[in-house]
Design brief:
- This protein has 402 residues and is α/β, with parallel strands linked by helices.
- The protein folds into two domains: 300 residues, FAD/NAD(P)-binding domain; 92 residues, no CATH class.
- It contains eleven helices and 16 strands.
- The strands form three sheets. The chain has a seven-stranded mixed β-sheet with strand order 6-5-11-12-13-10-14, sandwiched between helices. Strands 8-2-1-9-16-15 form a six-stranded mixed β-sheet, with helices on both faces.
- α1 runs parallel beside α7, α7 runs antiparallel to α8 and α8 packs antiparallel against α10.
- The longest helix has 27 residues.
- It is globular, with a radius of gyration of 22 Å.
- The protein starts with a strand and ends with a helix.
- The structure holds flavin-adenine dinucleotide.
- Flavin-adenine dinucleotide binds next to α1, β10, β14 and α7.
Length: 402
Amino acid sequence: MAEPRVSVIGGGPAGLAAALEGRRLGLKVDLFEKRKIGENIRCAEGFIDSLRLLGKPEAGVRFKVKEAILKVKREFRVNCESINLWMIDRKEWQCYLADKARSAGVRIYENCRITPELLKQLQEDYDWVIDASGVPSVTSLAFGFRDYYRRHGAITAQYVVEGDFSYLGDRLKFVLLPNYLGYCWIFPKGRDEFGRETANVGIGWFQGERPGESIWRELDRFVEREGITGKILKKFGGIVPIRLRQNLQYDNILLVGDAAGCASPMHGGGIDLAFITGQLAARWIATLQEKRGDFSREVWQLLGPKLEVEKRLCELWMKAGFDFLDGLASFVTRDYRQITPWFLLRNFPTLIRELRAGMRFWSGLTLGDWTGGGGVFGIFCPEGVFFLKKLVSFFIHFTGGR
Ligand SMILES: Cc1cc2nc3c(=O)[nH]c(=O)nc-3n(C[C@H](O)[C@H](O)[C@H](O)COP(=O)(O)OP(=O)(O)OC[C@H]3O[C@@H](n4cnc5c(N)ncnc54)[C@H](O)[C@@H]3O)c2cc1C
């Protein structure tokens, strides 16, 4: 039987992963990219392998992130040794993947924009179309759901700044903002192709009330507060789609990556999930027809547990005050000296209720297991034991040791 012919729209992480995996499985793959590969990247370039399925990127790695700085009201250090997190140069990485795909036999057509009319043509000419065109996806234009991404997306703004960021070393900095569910970041990137020291400095708004003023003004205020004075080399923003669509198949089209809406609802990271869903689409097509399940369901099965935990923590983030977040950061960073009995007493019910979600989050990031977090026995993880000890000592203190 002839191998299925597959067209891929978009040469980002999702499209390149689909093309590479498709060729590996013997599919005939053509990829269409509207610009040149690596040219149309809007990203802070922190690569977190949140499902622990990918490992270290094959190219473009700038450094392994060993520690992150998390600023809430106070500043905390998060040990990232056990998290698969790298700072990368996406252009270098994507160009490497494209070369690898070409060598494997993928035909890549650059400067070739697919319109909704051309999409119809692709549907006829190929057995399958993998839409990895980001937001708004070509499929959304053809099938009338373009607005979905805006309604369920985070809004971002970012500068690429030239300057001395050596004070951060190999650390990424995250600053949570008090007035809304969102955060700012400073991700140092090292030297660019012209030898300039640079960092990606940006802001993301996730959910809830969005301040009336421009996100760019908010970013400027952040830059000023952080004392960043370097030259702005680039400026861009965009929508990060943070709600996975229920339906990911339209006739013979499969949606993957941002086109599927699969970036993290908590922090907006989407490179890894784009890559994974791209691979999944190619595997699904390569599976014998009679053995194939429902594509949307397969994606949901894989990503669902992570998205569920993150959504829950987002709700907590939105409902709880800034003081609570600050206290919670002490737990997350294991900076236990900063936790006061008063904080424990006031937030006891919430902490108990959310302990399991917190443990699932940590076991997801460090072990790739987003389902269990150790179940009931998760209480014996270091955080659980610490929490119980704190409670007991607080109780002894409160009752005067009687
Ligand atoms: C400011 C910002 C910062 C971010 N920071 C991070 C981060 O640090 N870490 C992280 O994990 N994620 C981050 N993200 C999210 C991440 O960039 C995306 O989730 C990821 O790029 C999705 O990959 P993708 O392949 O699905 O789509 P994209 O990377 O958007 O790739 C889509 C490709 O399709 C092409 N294309 C579009 N339309 C057409 C068409 N009609 N015809 C042909 N080609 C087309 C585009 O040119 C592009 O090359 C950030 C996003 C933003 C906006």
